[in-house]
Write a structure and sequence with these properties.
Elements lengths: L1 E14 L2 E14 L3 E6 L5 H9 L6 E6 L13 E4 L11 H9 L8 H7 L17 H12 L6 E5 L7 H16 L3 E5 L3 H6 L6 E6 L2 E6 L1 H13 L13 H20 L2 H12 L11 H30 L2 H6 L5 H29 L7 H14 L1 H13 L2 H18 L10 H6 L4 H13 L5 H29 L2 H4 L1
Parallel strand pairs: 3-7, 3-8, 5-6, 6-7
Antiparallel strand pairs: 1-2, 1-4, 8-9
Helix pairs in contact: 4-5, 8-12, 9-12, 10-12, 10-14, 10-15, 12-14, 13-17, 14-18, 17-18
């Protein structure tokens, strides 16, 4: 059975104002049980070919099938593993936690203990996954464990031994050999001739990319695989779409959210700084009639900082480290990754606003009915959701070092277009544009929540503001998912 099929695939990239064909009408079939070594000069198209298999790029022409599915379909990744040349796990996770997270994305995975044993990392299970105390060999062993976590039928290894000393290289090659002996299919990308020589007895073919074409050298192992393939023809077919149960998706969401929560808890300085921001309300004058408006404005500002700046910087860092690319080639749906981030932002905001409300009641004497507090709380929290999703979009298209400036501009725009501050000399046409701002409708919902008992005007138009909230959420979600899947951002 062919696990990977390329039919007349062409892919080009712009170079010097012209289009250069990286792959030119390429045909390729990778059969079950093969061990393929992929070679080529720098820029020959090795990474492009891998990205096409993973669905991270799209061909200009031709078709690609992985396990019978289009590479963009999550089903194509259920039996596929990838070891990236460059990636870095989140700094706040331990080795065991990192392995357990990735294995939770697959329907049939190895146990954590088995993965630790295979990678010879049992003694490092409680070490930080991104610790400088890990040797080069231990670090590569970790990413090999992540690559095989889902018990894949097809394993892609991108320069797995680059930068390793001879002892560490031998360790990684032995792990590859052990996995191949189980009958797994392996596509190894390497420019190190000694690596190819060390595992040449396993190879079925060596593929070399030259000028957009594949030159193939077969071994006697290929003949055996070919014979097995011919005997199996007609007896095997690609399976239908796997049934993805709600419990499986829920398990992935809980696993990803748990990890995000761990990362949050292990950043005490960040948590303390957020509590300080929410605690600023304690300095407001006691029994000030406008205290609730000040408090609402301050809470909104803090929510924007969490939703737009903090969230987006974290995502940008994960993208830069290559961790997000690793997640993308797992069956983890984009919406689950997004939802886990939003849930954590919700938790931070809930704790902060609860602190602010407590200080407002007991420190500065704000008096409201319990129902009014509840409505204001939910108006603040739920209303920030589309902006938190938009923060994901920013994090995926911008670098971390410019996000702070961008978020400051957006927050300034939010204040200006909320309609709560009148600027002298503002042209009438500009004032007329303010009602088209999503920040304006969020502000109006909050004003309604502040003055629930005397708000006939706001009650009349509340449905319009809520409709804007729904549309803003939909648009932000579309942009966020588009950014998650955007080829240029992950390369």
């Amino acid at each position: 059975m062919n696990l990977v099929e390329f039919k007349n695939v062409t892919k080009s990239f712009g170079e010097g104002g012209q289009q250069r064909k990286i792959l030119n009408n390429v045909n390729l079939a990778i059969q079950a049980g093969e061990f393929i070594i992929l070679k080529g000069e720098m820029g020959a198209g090795k990474t492009t070919l891998i990205d096409l298999i993973l669905g991270l790029q799209m061909p200009e022409s031709g078709t690609i099938k992985v396990f019978g599915y289009s590479p963009e379909q999550p089903e194509s990744r259920l039996k596929l593993g990838l070891m990236l040349q460059k990636t870095r796990a989140p700094e706040s996770l331990k080795i065991e936690e990192t392995i357990n997270l990735v294995r939770s994305f697959y329907l049939k995975s190895y146990s954590v203990q088995e993965l630790l044993t295979r990678s010879k990392l049992e003694h490092k299970r409680y070490s930080w996954a991104s610790s400088d105390k890990l040797s080069g060999g231990e670090e590569r062993s970790l990413y090999f464990a992540l690559a095989i976590a889902g018990n894949p039928e097809l394993l892609i290894l991108d320069e797995p031994t680059t930068g390793l000393d001879p002892q560490a290289r031998a360790r990684v090659l032995q792990q590859i050999r052990d996995f191949s002996i189980e009958g797994k299919t392996i596509l190894l990308v390497s420019h190190i001739e000694s690596d190819a020589d060390a595992i040449s007895d396993l190879a079925t073919r060596t593929l070399t990319l030259i000028n957009g074409q594949i030159q193939e050298v077969r071994t006697k192992n290929f003949e055996q695989i070919q014979q097995s393939f011919l005997e199996a023809t007609g007896n095997h077919s690609h399976p239908g779409n796997p049934v993805v149960k709600a419990g499986y998706l829920l398990s992935m969401l809980l696993g990803q959210t748990k990890v995000e929560l761990l990362k949050l808890i292990r950043q005490p300085i960040f948590l303390l700084s957020m509590l300080v921001l929410y605690g600023v309300i304690a300095f407001l004058p006691k029994n000030d009639p406008n205290a609730i408006s000040y408090m609402t404005g301050l809470a909104t500002l803090n929510l924007f900082i969490v939703a737009i700046q903090t969230l987006s910087i974290q995502i940008a860092n994960e993208r830069k480290q290559g961790w997000l690319k690793l997640l993308m080639i797992t069956p983890l749906p984009a919406w689950i990754y997004l939802a886990s981030k939003v849930i954590i932002a919700f938790i931070i905001s809930t704790v902060g606003i609860s602190l602010m409300f407590s200080l407002g009641i007991f420190k500065i004497g704000i008096s409201q009915a319990f129902l009014d507090w509840v409505i204001l709380f939910f108006s603040l929290i739920v209303g920030i959701v589309p902006f938190a999703i938009f923060g994901f979009f920013i994090g995926y298209i911008m670098e971390a070092n410019i996000i702070s400036l961008t978020s400051a501009f957006i927050i300034g725009l939010a204040i200006f277009s909320s309609g709560t501050i009148s600027l002298p000399g503002m042209p009438e046409w500009l004032q007329n544009l303010i009602p088209f701002s999503p920040f304006y409708h969020y502000a109006q919902i909050l004003i309604w929540a502040e003055h629930l008992q005397a708000s006939e005007f706001y009650n009349t138009y509340l449905s319009i503001h809520l409709e804007w909230f729904v549309w803003t959420t939909c648009i932000a979600s579309f942009l966020a998912i588009w950014a998650y899947q955007r080829n240029r951002a992950i390369s």
